[in-house]
Design a protein that fits this description.
6-stranded antiparallel beta sheet; globular
């Protein structure tokens, strides 16, 4: 979100403290997928993961409408604009080169139902498409082996979530890029796949539609997944609104000028903090990203990324302690 180059983002992983021993606790991150994409491109002698994906998968599958950049989807004759969700309606969001396109192999793909249907056919045919072997059955099967439990019903494999039901296994994953949502689900034993794409941030609708379809195929009891997802979305929105409500009686703020100075971090590099009106602005040397910190409650500040430098403007409030 702050505009760091891929190599810098990957290098920052060395400073992350593990919260548990290896594969004992499920936690989701995009960063490791970015690293995996770099490993693949290096081994393939390609400039980036996108080039490998194009050569090894998209072109052999004939996924001609699939692309990797904000510019490409904007240039497409038939494309949808993304939207942010609120309980009162949606708000159109402009395409942004940083997210998700800066995340590489973690999710920088623009696609269509028709193209993704070809991908699903490859999955259901154990690595073959229209009689041509593209991936070995062994390699494809390995991506679906559970690696760590998410809960008592679902485990995470390699880019797939895997669940077991009395009527067969489910292989699926959802996606969210702040203004688009997606769900892909497979029933390998039934030779069926489900694809749901929306031009709205994923607050549960693609997942609900996808799971409803899979439930019908598996003869499971009817559940109103859409109503449940809407209830959770509204509850989450209300919680965020309550959390971001201005304190009625905030504690005294510290003087801003004495907080100014130059700082350094092994992850973020050098930064300068300076007063700007009634706020502080933290400028990151490497990307030029600027973060406004506004007094909130005593030594607690809200912060938001400003539309300056190489960063993604971020309007949702967050907090930092001075």
């Amino acid at each position: 979100m702050l505009g760091y180059e891929e190599a810098t983002a990957i290098r920052s992983l060395r400073h992350v403290e593990p919260v548990s021993s290896f594969r004992t606790t499920f936690a989701y991150t995009n960063m490791t997928h970015l690293l995996a994409g770099r490993i693949v491109s290096n081994l393939a002698g390609a400039p980036d993961w996108n080039a490998v994906a194009r050569r090894e998968l998209l072109d052999p599958l004939g996924m001609a409408e699939t692309s990797f950049t904000a510019e490409a989807i904007e240039a497409a004759a038939n494309h949808a604009s993304g939207h942010r969700w609120t309980p009162d309606g949606t708000i159109e969001v402009p395409f942004e080169p940083i997210f998700p396109y800066g995340y590489g192999a973690a999710g920088d793909i623009n696609s269509t139902i028709e193209d993704l249907a070809r991908w699903i056919r490859l999955q259901l045919r154990n690595g073959s498409f229209e009689g041509r072997r593209i991936v070995s059955p062994e390699s494809l099967a390995y991506t679906r082996i559970p690696k760590v439990a998410v809960d008592d019903r679902v485990s995470y494999a390699m880019g797939w979530l895997v669940g077991q039901t009395p009527n067969g296994s489910i292989v699926f994953h959802n996606g969210d890029t702040l203004s688009f949502g997606a769900f892909l689900g497979l029933l390998p034993d039934r030779d069926v796949g489900v694809i749901v794409l929306t031009n709205e941030a994923n607050v549960g609708l693609p997942d609900a539609i996808g799971m409803w379809a899979l439930d019908r195929l598996l003869d499971k009891p009817v559940a109103d997944h859409v109503a449940n997802a809407l209830k959770l979305a509204k509850s989450g929105f209300a919680s965020n609104e309550k959390l971001s409500a201005k304190p009625a009686n905030p504690r005294p703020f510290p003087l801003l000028a004495p907080l100014a100075g130059s700082f350094g971090s092994p992850i973020f590099g050098k930064a300068v903090l300076r007063p700007e009106g009634d706020t502080l602005v933290l400028e990151l040397h490497e990307t030029g990203a600027q973060i406004a910190l506004a007094p909130w409650d005593g030594d607690v500040f809200t912060f938001r990324v400003l539309p300056r430098g190489r960063s993604l403007p971020w309007s949702q409030p967050a907090w930092a302690r001075g």
